[in-house]
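Protein modeling request. Please complete all fields; requests missing the sequence field cannot be processed.
Requester role: graduate student
Desired output: 3D structure, token encoding
Chains: 1
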Amino acid sequence: MMGLSAKDETLYASLTSELPCFLSKALLQSAHLPSLPAVALQVLEVARASNASLHDYASVIEHDPGLTARLIAVANSVHNLRSALPAQTSLEATQRLGLDATLATVLRFTLFPGLDTASAAFPTWQRAIIAAVAASQLAYQLCPAQVGKTFTLALLQDIGILAILSTYPNEAELLYADVHTPHGQLAHAEYQRFGSDHTRVGAWLAAKWGLPNNVVHAIYQSHDGFLTDDMATLCLRLSGPIADAWLSPEPSTELAVLLKQLAALGNIPGRTFEALFQQLSQQLTLVTDILDITLPLHTDSQSLLADAQQLLYQHTLALTARLDTQQQQVYELQQHNTALEERSRIDPLTKLANRAWLEKQLQERFTLCNENSRTMSVIFIDLDHFKVLNDQYDHQTGDVILERFGKTLASLIRKGDLAGRYGGEEFLIILPDETAQTAQRLAERIARRLNEQPMIEVDQEALFITASMGIACLSDGDFRDERELIDAADQSMYSIKRSGRRGISVYGRE
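Delivered output (510 residues):
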């Protein structure tokens, strides 16, 4: 392992402390923990440079004769032989393979020696290759200067799985046996068994190898969400889900889910995915030919994207229909609740405010007037001889009288006033910003209307009623609360009752 700087040692210690003690101890004691030789670490360092050249790669690789021989063999394989002259040097092999394939080949032989397609590590390698190609193709569009960096990080994002496989081979083989397990579920299962997931283990392993801090942090956060302003980070975090969709038995469905998530964020230009899927099949074919691995290569990746977009469109239509139904249900519920609320405020017979609503409104308006130095008046009304009317005729006649008197009050008050049935044959009118004098004028109009208009005809005989009314104004007394204001109006009304009924009395002026 390359020597770590003091800062690297701090990061390594911090990541070690994040792992459960039993897991970190087991990892350190594992005889088969993945390691990178110095040449591989140097190749990764070259890959991180935005201006890395084929010559830079070749110069590092040629220091390891064994790796050089393997690289030349891959370059001269039947899959890649494009010239009658075989490659004989590290530079010639690198020139034939290209930068990305060279890096992938180096990591293939250092991280996956003797790879068996039946091994649980094989799906990890498949996913890494697809993710790396997808990440680099996205980076070409979103952050061209960081193509090499994103390809490298995508290849390394799941190295924690290799560490877990080497440390707990039997349990991990079972855990990773189902290659189609969603990556999120896989991480949850890792947490349940090992107390950590492979991204944390992978970051720890990268720090142990001595990789730069920014690489360690990128692996640590590689499976985080898509909400980021850094395009290279976004390319990395998208690469894994793209690979999962590609490897899925239902790639169109998986890709549609991914497109839906990205549409909600809106941080990727609309043409990005179209451009990616125009190149993805071709680029994967080139890399898999070089590395001699099998992938479920979709013959037409553009059709795959089109199918995913159609699924997303159909889902959106279905969702819109459900939302319309839900909105209609919400509207109807709101209407129903509004009607219930209205009914809870209204006296069912007179259609005026009921006592509870009158008292609540009077309390609020009393407080508001006191706080803002405003005035307010109330008129307390009692229909005269109402019990006699009920006894002489019947209660149904009495109800008709109450109903029509309610309509009379509603027709005479102004907007902003509130009239209600206080109880039995008693009524209350709240008059914001009205003095006792203007309230008296309203009471006089009520009296005139009663004098001019019969409430009901009984046996073809017009039946008139009269009322006793008391008025109290907030400005005419030292009222501590709204209850005292009502009591003052009530007392004034009773002064009329005692003097023979049918009249108007103002508090403080009897």
